[in-house]
Amino acid sequence: MIRLILVDDHPVVRHGIRGMLEAEPDLTVVGEASSGPEGVALAAELRPDIVLMDLRMPGGDGVEATARIVATMPGVRVMVLTTYESDRDILRAIEAGAGGYLLKDASPAELAEGVRAAARGETVLAPSVASTLVRQVRSPAPPTLSAREAEVLRLVARGLTNADIGRELFIAEATVKTHLLRAFAKLDVADRTAAVTRAMSHGLL
């Protein structure tokens, strides 16, 4: 028997999910909570196999609760069940350690099978969620510059030499070169002009 707890701030939603799951002979809901902190406490008390976790709840964030459960309760798996599928929500939940991410429009059969798969240790993702993660992997994050690297490149864009930049910022010329080389590496370029052009294209200057 797979034991679950439900964490959702809407009692009607919890009632509906409980009804769907308990119609299955191998699934049982052993507890309910209405916020992230309540879910963490209940998971610690009951040690279920699966926690079905909503993300956005007035009483406490589901992502933070997921991270706490995963970090402190080995063997308890968290599966997100939510209406939200923004890139930020998905990435935060997966990074927190969620073993699955399903949407509330899943059919009863999809939900039950997702719970069983999560209990077996598999990762369960709604198709739209999987597509988002693939897109994120294929689209590398834009480069970032430190405040000083950006400052140096802004002065390069104004036509200043390394010596001029050193005098402007009250740093050694060798330090200016160090900042430039780090910026080149982050921007994947080999010269000053390309560095300024790429930094501007990414909105870094």
Walk me through what this model shows:
The protein has 205 residues and is an alpha/beta fold. The protein folds into two domains: 2-138, 3-Layer(aba) Sandwich (Rossmann fold), CATH 3.40.50; 147-201, Winged helix-like DNA-binding domain superfamily/Winged helix DNA-binding domain (Arc Repressor Mutant, subunit A), CATH 1.10.10. The protein contains ten helices and six strands. The protein has helices spanning 11-22, 36-46, 62-72, 87-96, 108-119, 127-138, 147-157, 162-169, 173-187, 192-201; strands at residues 2-7, 27-33, 50-53, 77-82, 100-103, 124-125. Helix 5 links the parallel strand 5 (100-103) and strand 6. Helix 7 packs across helix 10 (192-201) and helix 9 (173-187) crosses helix 10 (192-201). The longest helix has 15 residues, at 173-187. The mean pLDDT is 91.
Rg is 24 Å
How many domain modules? 2
Strand order of the largest sheet: 2-1-3-4-5-6
The CATH architecture of the largest domain can be named as: 3-Layer(aba) Sandwich
Q: What name does the CATH topology of the largest domain carry?
A: Rossmann fold
The coarse overall form would be elongated
Major sheet, described briefly? 6 strands, parallel
Low-confidence stretches: none
Helix vs. strand class? alpha/beta
Distance between the termini: 58 Å
- CATH homology group of the largest domain: Response regulator
Share of helix among residues? Answer: 40-55%
Q: Which sequence of SSEs, written as H and E, runs from N to C? A: EHEHEHEHEHEHHHHH
> Average pLDDT across residues?
91
Class of the largest domain, according to the CATH hierarchy? Alpha Beta
Proportion of β residues? 5-15%
Separate helix tally: 10
Domain Response regulatory: 3-119
Pfam family, one: GerE
GO molecular function: DNA binding
Domain HTH luxR-type: 138-203
